[in-house]
Amino acid sequence: MANRLSFFFAFLIVAALSVVRNVNAQAVTAEATFTGGASTDNVAVGASQVRTFGEFRGWRFYGDASFATRNESESDAFGAAYPYEPKASLLELKLEKTEIKGQRLLGVRVGRYRTPFGIYSGSDQGYVGFSRAPLMRNSYYWALSNNYLETGGSVIAGTTWLSAEASAGISSDQDEFARPGGLNSVFRVQAAGGPLIVGASYIRTRPSRERWFATGTTEFTGADLRWMKDGVQLRGEWITGRPFSGAKTHGAYVDGLVHRPRMGPVTAIARMEYLDYLAGSFSEFPRRYTFGARVRLTQALTTQVNYIRQPHEEEHDSHRASLDIGLSYTIRMGSWLGLRGQ
User: Fold this and answer.
1) What's the predicted TM-score (pTM) here?
2) From CA 60, how far away is CA 95, in angstroms rounded?
């Protein structure tokens, strides 16, 4: 069902691009990124990702696909941006439109997109310098996942400073912990003012197919906050709920990113986080601290270095302390598909 819906939405988007091929469209951009990395957690990865995005007649579109490989390891290293699966995977493929009249806002999204819970976008989580997803957004643990994808639609309405979004879709995850089919619902409220963004989210979905013992539904409520000023960004998320019947999970993280002019190409990063998974004798209580940097070596070449300290040894962690190093090269192209760039 999910695959049929994905192909249906893909057909709609490709058809829309064909219709506007010869009209006065705005700039369309395509990117290809090649990434390699290694960790002292006995992990080595290589990946390529292709993205295209742009706008025509007020509609924004975005699509990306990936192909990756990694050696066998239970570590979650390099899982922040997208799944490192040894196959070609369609990730996002969506159309969005937002209308603003005075203070009123109305928007719609259709296609395959990241689950709109909390701080969820790929750029927010995967491209700021952290090589691993937060514990509460990690497929290896007992909460949510940065790899959640929905095929469906969402509507956002409100004002330019206070809005609500409702999403309904079929699970389209591409990693080994993919959820089964069935309708998922997500609701989010967000307020923005000056340098501050505050949000609250609720999700109802299903546990991973990989966990045969997990029955019932997955339900979480969360809160998030982002503050940015003068090259300093502070962010955090908190969640509480159940990953499946008979278990409870609470978790949170706070991180900071600093990029001041005198730091040149370097962005310093730090994160502290916790997760409490309550399931009787199977309970786990991982804690993690991350320090590192993202460095732009050239316009196209960046590296990230993360030192991870995890005081409590858990089933999926082979080291209490780890060092992750990654290198990415990005090629950007301009107008394509016959659309006229500006």
Assistant:
1) 0.86
2) 6
pLDDT digits (tens, 9 = 90+) for 187-224: 999 999 999 999 999 999 999 999 889 999 999 999 99
Residue pLDDT, tens place only, 112-121? 999 999 999 8
Nearest to 326 by CA among 289, 286, 297: 297
**Diameter over CA atoms, the chain:** 63
Short-list 61, 50, 49, CA closest to 19: 61
Asked whether residue 121 is assigned to any structural domain, the reply reads yes
Q: Ramachandran region of residue 95, left (φ > 0), alpha (ψ -120 to 50) or beta?
A: beta
Question: Would you say residue 338 lies in a domain?
Answer: no
Provide the sign of the torsion angle of the four alpha carbons 340, 17, 119, 44, taken in this order.
negative
Angle (CA) 180-113-57 rounded to 5° is 150
Q: Give 129's contacts (C-beta < 8 A, 6+ positions apart).
A: 257, 267, 269, 292, 293, 294, 304, 306
In a domain, 55, yes or no: yes
Which residues have CB under 8 Å from 197's CB, separation 6+? 190, 191, 225, 226, 227
Whether residue 250 is contained in a domain is answered as yes
